[in-house]
């Protein structure tokens, strides 16, 4: 299986890139993951500063609206403040429970396809 992953940011070292790289590592041997770098494309992208919990609103909106775009939602996971819950050095979530849930969701993508 081939998966195209789009981190949805033009910040190469940003949390979206780190999370996509983490997911790609979890799928090694089960799928080929190609990560798209938006910096390779010319487009206006703005990166406004966000409050620490701003992602919760985005996650809720994306989850609720997925069905209107024909998406089959496999699951969702809010991890709280990224920099408190993701170890950039290790490249993984800090809490074992979140690591397990994230891994299960990522692997469910392969099963659902």
Keywords, please?
two-stranded parallel sheet; two-stranded antiparallel sheet; globular
Give a brief rundown of this model.
The protein has 113 residues and is an alpha+beta fold. The protein has 4 helices and 4 strands, in the order βαβααββα.
Please identify the structural class as seen in this structure: alpha+beta
User: How many beta-strand runs?
Assistant: 4
Q: What ranges have pLDDT less than 50 throughout 5 or more consecutive residues? A: none
Number of helices: 4
Percentage of residues in strands: 5-15%
Which strand order do you get reading across the main beta sheet?
A: 1-2
Indicate the multimeric state: single chain
Average pLDDT number: 85
The main pleated sheet reads as:
2 strands, parallel
Number of domains: 1
Distance between the termini: 8 Å
What is the helix fraction of residues, given as a range?
A: 25-40%
How are helices and strands ordered from N to C?
Answer: EHEHHEEH
Shape: globular
Question: Roughly how many Å is the radius of gyration?
Answer: 14 Å
């Amino acid at each position: 299986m081939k998966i195209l992953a789009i981190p949805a940011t033009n910040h190469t070292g940003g949390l979206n890139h780190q999370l996509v790289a983490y997911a790609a590592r979890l799928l090694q041997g089960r799928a080929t993951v190609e990560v798209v770098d938006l910096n390779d494309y010319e487009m206006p992208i703005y990166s406004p500063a966000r409050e620490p919990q701003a992602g919760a609103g985005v996650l809720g909106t994306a989850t609720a609206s997925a069905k209107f775009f024909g998406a089959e939602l496999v699951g969702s996971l809010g991890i709280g403040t990224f920099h408190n819950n993701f170890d950039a050095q290790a490249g993984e979530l800090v809490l074992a429970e979140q690591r397990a849930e994230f891994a299960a969701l990522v692997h469910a993508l392969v099963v659902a396809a």
